[in-house]
Amino acid sequence: MQVEPADHFVNWQQDAFGNFLARLVFPRRARSLTLTIGLIADLKVINPFDFFIEPYAEHIGFDYPKALAEGLKPYLRPVDEEGEGTGPGDLSEAWVKNFSVAPGTRTIDFLVALNRAVNADVGYRVRMKPGVQTPDLTQRTGIGSCRDPAWLLVSILRQLGLAARFVPGYLVQLTSGVEALDGPSGPAADFTDLHAWTEVYIPGAGWIGLDPTSGLFAGEGHIPLSATPHPDSAAPITGATEPCETTRSPDPVVGHRQSGCPGRERAFPRLAAAQRTAPDHHSRRAAAVQPRRRGHRHVARWLHLSRVTSGWAVL
């Protein structure tokens, strides 16, 4: 992480959910603040279905043990649509009631179907406005940026009694090293974008990543930056010892969920089609059809603020 002005102090800390934060202290005034983040990731192909589930949780309708439920309370609390303690919105509740599940459905089959159902109901668009839409607004408009269906899926999962959290991070999609023989080969070019998705807690498997923007499970290309019960807790925090005016760069890659997620429409349709052509959508083989190639990729992002006063910022 390269920070300008160079005259500053950096302290790393963890928030209440274990996410790492960089606290920057600037002893003098500055007219601009620039942060350049470099990341090298070794992307090894993983199978997102490679996990075991506790016997009592193998079929949907299970209850978390009391001790576990206590620890998961922040992730089980219903999403408050209006922020006034009124609970989920009418559209969100109606969606859950209309989503039929056959008795005895395997939990993994249920998660696959639920993720794809949200993907089918919400179209994608780049949305530059900050913040996350309420679940009802996302359903009413039927469209949103990556962070919007992710938060909608969190709301749905919690109404169904499953612990869920919001996850912002990077999405890395690499071209395949070989031509696919039984389906699409994946993206035509490598790309990296900021992204957001959902994680659900399943006993035995732990936190499982679901990406409703694509309808797929999170794979090695999903690189999380944080995970929190509410999007507000995952956003960068900025502050100063006195009022200051700041402006964000118009570049679409700036800020967790503050930007759109360009590029997903280029790759996700191919990957989703490849997963749909798998003989068993819910088998271990289904994950292998997501084309990837091993390798290192450099990720760089920058942020520009004008007229920053002396103070601190937590990113």
Describe this structure in words.
- The protein has helices spanning about 65-70, 75, 90-100, 105-120, 135-140, 145-160, 230-235, 265-275, 285-290, and strands spanning about 1-5, 10-15, 20-25, 30-40, 125, 145, 165-175, 190-200, 205-210, 215, 220-225, 235-240, 295-310, 310-315.
- With about 325 residues, the chain is of the alpha+beta class.
- It has a single domain (about 40-235, about 245-300), classed as C8orf32 fold, CATH 3.10.620.30.
- A five-stranded antiparallel sheet has the order 10-9-8-7-11. Strands 2-3-14-12 form a four-stranded antiparallel sheet, with no helix packed on it.
- A hairpin with a 4-residue loop joins strand 9 (about 205-210) and strand 10.
- Helix 5 crosses helix 6.
- The protein is globular and about 65 Å long.
- The model is unreliable at about 245-315 (pLDDT under 50).
CATH architecture: Roll
Q: Main β-sheet, in a few words?
A: 5 strands, antiparallel
Tally of strands: 14
From the N-terminal CA to the C-terminal CA, the straight-line distance is: 11 Å
Number of helices: 9
> Would you give the CATH topology?
C8orf32 fold
Question: What's the gyration radius in Å?
Answer: 20 Å
Assembly type of the chains comes to: single chain
Mean of residue pLDDT values: 77
Report the order of strands and helices: EEEEHHHHEHEHEEEEEHEHHEE
Helix content: 10-25%
Strands in their spatial order, largest beta sheet: 10-9-8-7-11
Shape: globular
Give the count of structural domains.
1
Query: Any low-confidence stretches, pLDDT <50, length ≥5?
Result: 243-315
Share in β-strands: 25-35%
